[in-house]
Fold:
Amino acid sequence: MNILIQHGEVIDPCRGFQQVADVAIQLGHVLSIGSVAKDFQPDQVIDARGCWVMPGLVDLCARLGEPGHAHEGMLASELGAAVAGGVTSLVCPPDTQPVLDEPGLVEMLQLRAARLQCARVFPLGALTQGLAGDNLSAMAELTQAGCVGFSQAEAGVSHTQILQRAMQYAATYGYVLWMRAQDAFLGKGVAASGPIATRLGLSGVPVAAETIALHTLIDVMRSTGARLHLCRLSSAAGVALVRQAKAEGLPVTADVSIHQLHFTDNDVGYFDTRARLNPPLRQSQDRDALRAALADGTIDVLVSDHTPVLGDAKDLPFAQAEPGASALEMLLSATLKWAEQSGVSRMRALQVVTCEPAKLLGESAEGLGRLDVGCPADVCVLDPSIQWQVAPSSLHSQSKHTPFAFAMSGSQMPGKVKATLVGGRVVYQA
Structure:
């Protein structure tokens, strides 16, 4: 299908391009930006007047409920939520049901996602069998099946010898380990350690749970030469350690979730389970340090950390409630809100959700996260003038739990997605 997007402000954060221009799309790729050939006959014309025409977002952490919830159609609903938020590519952690530790499960997930013809799905394979932290998974076979890296999700690896062997193996074959830095023993609480957790009588997760794990991960990485991506940093002390590792020249990257940029432990309020998240929301000084680190490049990528929680799993006492929140549809708006509040340029804001995450995916994401001639036509058309309120009932995700809900946050979100294209196909249009 030939598609012409007219009169929009074309933005490519990868090359710093920003210009009002028409975009011609043919055979799933960008044919031209600016002048359109006279013989180009579009099958569909999208009027983007007053809108930004930008690359589709690349989200490095989004749980889709699959495998595990096929009978509930969660894969379709969550991918629908992704494209409604302008997300055209996403990475799925391995903590599914069953765990993504077998090539057949990875292939099945990709096949089901491809059949939906919606957003692109890049699976992470389990680093250890069943995420138990004991025996390494078959990393070579999982890579051949389509895994872009290996992770323990929230499980971690408490046995440092297993961690060392995993990094040695990964370094030998060029694999990337995606690890969340949290000590297995100190990280068992439900809220960030501090006055609020103490006042509410909630078990705390100290900053040391993150920094101790970071010291271990970075030291083992230094000795093995493995590439490490640190997932969802949550503390100022953690930021300082990552900054030090990067200054040393170690092959480390990091991301942070939109929740840690916009909320603090104060938002727990009186046991509001919408703020029950992993990692836990920390103090304002941690949030400010994370915002600054994302702006200056210490943290490379911003993620949604979309974790759908269904049914009554939130309607429980805070400590018993399931952690997680719906976030795919808020990723782009939350990014723009952070940029507005922190004085960050538009280009930098869009880089952390487009070309920077695509870069971390390597060859498997060739041409994604950018808008240039010859690249895959994964495009987001955004109206930046629209201010909207997050209403859980209107979310495309089956999960309606989010701290961004207007009833909790009391604030509006900037920018609304008008259309999303994946591979030259219109997969969402408002």
The domain at 56-365 is CATH 3.20.20.140 (TIM Barrel). The chain is about 30% helix and 20% strand. The radius of gyration is 21 Å.
